[in-house]
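Intended use. Records such as the Transglutaminase entry shown here are meant for training and evaluating sequence-to-structure methods. They are not intended to support clinical decisions.
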Amino acid sequence: MEQLALSRYNASTAATVASWRQLIDEIEVLADEQKVARVNTFFNRLIRWRQDRDIWQQEDYWATPLETMARRQGDCEDFAVAKYMTLLLAGVDVDKMRITYVRAQVGGPHSNISQAHMVLAYYSVSSADPLILDNIVSEIRPASRREDLKPVFGFNSKGLWVGAADSPATNDPGARLSRWRNLLQRMAADGLG
């Protein structure tokens, strides 16, 4: 991927990819919770949040981790996808993670204003209160301590869950999420397939 980063982007992107690969190598031997913390910190420090229309001149574009690292900017789903793929490469079981579309309450605890947002949820076991990896709130907290987030649906490469359901509504998330299907194809072209 470093060679791809160098040929497609530049030496700076190749160096970022090398740092990312080093992170993956370093954390492979750690416990999952330590991996989660290191990956969350890595991307929250590396990537600057910006809207898709400013980065990609599109209303909604799901970037591959390579694209996100090349631009060093992304929106919420770009953070969630990069963290998901990094943890997957570091050996975290796919069944323990869901990229989760939520409604995020903005404007304080008494506000009724919400906006669409994406986070990565990590489940130590399937029935656990998941840990939330977020680009807005950098501290990893259990979902029960994130009352500002209301889950709408979650997905990974094996399924799609509606709300906070324990079992998937479908085992083929790409059939319902064309952006996810497209992203998986582009990640495969980046060597992440």
